Amino acid sequence: MTKRAILLANLGSPDAPTTPAVRRYLNQFLMDPYVIQLPWLLRRMIVSLFVLPSRPKASAEAYQSVWTAEGSPLIALSEKLKDALKTQVTHPVEMAMRYGNPSIEQQLLKITADKSIEEVLYIPLYPHYADSTVTTSIEEARRVISKHQLDIKLRIIPPFYDQPEYIKALVTSAQPYLEQEYDHIIFSYHGLPESHITKLDPSGTHCLKQDNCCQGSHPAHQTCYRHQVMRTTQCFALQAGLATDRYSVAFQSRLGRAKWLGPNTEDTLRELAEQGAKHVMVLCPAFVTDCLETLEEIAIRGEEVFKEAGGEKLTLIPCMNDHPAWVNVLAGWCEH
Ligand SMILES: C=CC1=C(C)c2cc3[nH]c(cc4nc(cc5[nH]c(cc1n2)c(C)c5CCC(=O)O)C(CCC(=O)O)=C4C)c(C)c3C=C
Ligand SMILES: [Fe+2]
Ligand SMILES: [Fe+2]
């Protein structure tokens, strides 16, 4: 039997919630050509002139507001997920981050120090396809394998946005919240520049060319982040029995001046409050692990926006983190 190891991969955080550490992290992250998809010189100028002078300080303050005794929430919770998975599978399990530490390089070298390992099952922890998350994680693993001539087969778990077991785990982990009284649920997904989607459309004539392009089936949907988040929402709503007028989709974490997917989560929160919603719940299915974008952007800043506009209560439905239902799904993938 093939000797297998498991590598979970997520996005990554700065090493500390300080301005210099966040500057290093943002520089690595935003100089990735899969994230800011411009020629190197233009990317270097934008990052150096418009991002690095002011964003590290503001982001460091945001990180400080959610930092834990174990460090960044994203990393601490990913560690917990890895530890929980270890108890459910017979293979070695490691966890890596695309930016910062522990790096994909460090963890692949650690895994392959055991010369009996023949295959790495690589699980990018993103339900939906995006070059800025999935592709860059895969390319980084391939770069490391080629650089060190590692004698392993890389088997990759693709985006799992509509896999019934993933949807079931997501509904199960959200269930205690769905039983509360609420006015509306926002499915808030990390945003993307629209150009990242249209660029991947093989027909060149489908994606974002009309409002309902993401419904039904089309070859472009294999790499269409917007289609995939809509499908997750639809599958979740069906499984949880949500009425169509009790939920909507919005996109958070916009950066820069390009046109990003909409509607924007903050605008949606404001509008809901103005229409009289008192208790809004926010579920963030693009993240399987709570992080800055859920704990700070939604639970802190989003709540402020909602309350200022007349809302009373915003509840962040936690990500799946190390929920046993999610750990079981991962364990099932690991044993196949
Ligand atoms: C869930 C999938 C994600 C996609 C798609 C994504 C695209 C994307 N992100 C940025 C810029 C930033 N994102 C930041 C934080 C961040 N992003 C994701 C996930 C996705 N990003 C996560 C999980 C996190 C949290 C990291 C943590 O430490 O908790 C940040 C850093 C924080 C900040 O300064 O706001 C930036 C910047 C772009 C430009 C992009 C697509 C082009
Ligand atoms: Fe992001
Ligand atoms: Fe689409």
UniProtKB/TrEMBL annotation:
Locations listed in the record: Cytoplasm
Reactions this protein catalyses: heme b + 2 H(+) = protoporphyrin IX + Fe(2+); Fe-coproporphyrin III + 2 H(+) = coproporphyrin III + Fe(2+)
Signal peptide segment: none
Alphabetized UniProt keyword annotations: Cytoplasm, Heme biosynthesis, Iron, Lyase, Metal-binding, Porphyrin biosynthesis
Annotated EC: 4.98.1.1
Pfam family name, one: Ferrochelatase
Pathway: Porphyrin-containing compound metabolism; protoheme biosynthesis; protoheme from protoporphyrin-IX: step 1/1
Binding-site residues for Fe(2+), renumbered to this chain: H190, E293
PANTHER family on file: FERROCHELATASE, FERROCHELATASE, MITOCHONDRIAL
Similarity-based family: Belongs to the ferrochelatase family.
Name this polypeptide is given: Ferrochelatase
Species of provenance: Methylophaga marina
Source taxonomy: Bacteria, Pseudomonadati, Pseudomonadota, Gammaproteobacteria, Thiotrichales
